[in-house]
Every structure is written in C-alpha cells, then in structure tokens.
Design goal:
This protein is an alpha+beta fold and about 300 residues long. The chain is about 35% helix and about 25% strand. Helix 4 packs across helix 5. The chain starts with a helix and ends with a strand.
Amino acid sequence: MGSSDLKNKTVVTVISRITERPVAKEACMVVIYGDELGKKYNLEAPSIIVGRSSKTEIQIDQESVSRNHCKLINTGKSIILRDLGSTNGTYVNDELVDEHVLRDGDLIKIGRTIFKFLTGGNIENAYHEEIYRLTTVDGLTQVYNKRYFLEVLEREISRGHRYGRELSLIMFDIDHFKQINDTFGHLAGDYVLKHLASVIKERIRREDIMARYGGEEFAIVLPEIDNYNARQFAEKIRRIVERTTFKFEDTKIPVTVSVGVASTASEVTDPTHFIKLADERLYEAKHRGRNCVCG
C-alpha cells in the first residue's frame, strides 16, 4: 500500500512539473531613448533584474536608477514588470507602476532610459521596424528628430520655389531649461520636454512637421503658410505653453517658451540659411525678456 501511494505521488509530481514549466514567450525590449540606442534585450529567462548594479542582467548606469530597480518575470504566458522599491519609480506609458502586465508597444521608462516592449508572432520584423522608426523619431518626445526635419525642410523649400508656395519655419525653446533641470532634476526635465511636445503636437495640422531640433529646442515646418499666419500660430503656441500645467511628482513647474519665425523669400534656397534666420529671431525673443515671439 505504501508502495502504491508512493507511485501515485510520483506520477502526480511529474505531471505537475510538466504543466507548470514556463514556456519561453517571444518578447524583447528595445532601447528607444538613452545610451545604446536600438539595443535589443531578449526576455526569455524566467526572471531578469534591471538596475544600476553590475550584477543585474540589464544594467543602466545612471544616478536616477536604483541598484536593483525592477524585475521582469516571464510566466510563460505573459511578461510582468515589477518595481523593486526603486527611489525614482518605474513608469509604463508615463504611469508610475508597482506591477504591470506588459503589452506589445508599451513604453517603459527606467531612470532616463526608455525601452519599447515588443512581443507577438513576428518579433524580428517588429524589431527592424522599430529600428527604422528610430531614424526619424525622437524616442523621448515621440516627435520627429533633427535628421528627418532637415530632410523635410530641404524638400519643402525646393517645392515652395518650384510651385511658388509660401513656407514658414518656427523655432522655439524652453526658457531657463537648465534651471528646471537644476531645481527639479533631469527626470522632471525629461517630463517637461515630453509633455510640451505632446501638447503642441495636438495643435498642428497633419501637413505640418514638428521635430526636436536638439536639447530643449523644437522646430515646426509650416508648408503653404505665410509670415503673418505663422506669427499668429507662434503666438498661439506661446500662450498654450504658458497656460499648460506641468506637474511632475506633485510639483508644479512653470514653463514658458521663446519663439522665432522665418518665412521663405526668393533668396532663401538653403535649409541652413532658413534655420539661421529662425534661430536669430528666437535669440532676439530671448533678449527681449523671453516668453515672446519674434519674426
């Protein structure tokens, strides 16, 4: 009888092990903002620790990242992200999370690094699409990057000359941005850049191109818009930013922008010259006391 019980117990244990064994789910994270842009991390292991420590499986060597910041758990059916009591928190799609079941396309922010979570049937194809996207889009703000902006501007200048169409360019940057970083921290600075880009992107036309030109400076290409209407739109942007609430971790951050406007004339055929004109007007706005439009 004891032998029969033991036999049954052994059979049950074996079945249990087979049933509960995790099946590796095809998933990865891709760095879309931060060091090692485009690097892919496969998430096949049952448990992966992310943190500042050299002993973690995914190391992010930044002051804003805790030594053991968060953990990725592969259950075989899903990937769970769990914060490990980090100092600055773990964010998924801009929401602070303790534990979150990841879905395809989720954006994970750990310190100042942003990952995109990819999963599904053709993960390799999704990865290559994301790498291509990184050639045109800024990972933090999700607006176009400088490289794509320069390509578009050259094309639109050429088109404007060919068909005799108006073209305007708005350049603007955040006033006292260094002060924001110094006072509230770089994570707050990243939040301001991202939120500002999101707010303005909603207000532009489909044919307009908004890009992060560099640091805290942005540009908007306005095809078929003359100087008067471009200045009106620039003033609208200035007011929107001034009235928008920027709140990071329960702290309100005052944000304003200075704006420069340039419009094409027959002698403007070079993107560099056009940008220089808009930039000169932006710096004129700075000298006039900031939070204003020149052009």
